[in-house]
Design goal:
The chain has 229 residues and is an alpha/beta fold. The chain is built from 9 helices and 7 strands.
Amino acid sequence: MTEPQRIDPSKIRSFIRRQGRATAGQKFALEHHWQKYCLIPEQAFDPVQAFGRQAPLIVEIGFGNGDSLAAMAAANPHLNYLGIEVHRPGVGHLMMLLEQQGISNVRIYHHDAIEILERKIADHSLAGIHLFFPDPWQKRRHHKRRIVRPSFVDLLNKKLAVGGYFHAATDWEHYAKDMLAILAAGEGLKNSSPSGDFCPRPDYRPLTKFENRGLGLGHGVWDLIFAKL
């Protein structure tokens, strides 16, 4: 009798590729601006070559439609931003915003964020990592798919520079508490909240339309910020 195949928990993907339909503007951006903004996963990543300059680098995991990432990049031109997203229309939407607003400090990977962090990002090189409103995988049997797990905390420690930070935000209280427990249990990161739990939303994280609508309905949003020691 053969033994059941064991799956490495760290290799369980936290996303499902849902490509959806792209708008005309997104399709145009995908066809005409890909080489300008998107990086090739199979090639080595050199930040200076990619951005044309040396600057602190912030990675955003799963930027959705890119509204928040574009706003942050426009407000902080002294920083470089690397967005990673598997949803192709979202990539197109972000490129459309970058082109319309003349934003030059963003580059994009259309790929699995964990693989990019593991294989392309130099150790102890990141000023920050953002994870805003990740899929909460509500059902208990799907909790293993949540991106924040012990192996992810190890990866944060490996890729963040000393003094760098990890910032997560979610509108699912259970996931917020789950992330808090996992991050607090790991080594090498310190909670930036004076009360040891959640932080007020910092000014650099823009409110999304979805978040604004939820807040108007009385829904909560929880921000976690942990600094690399």
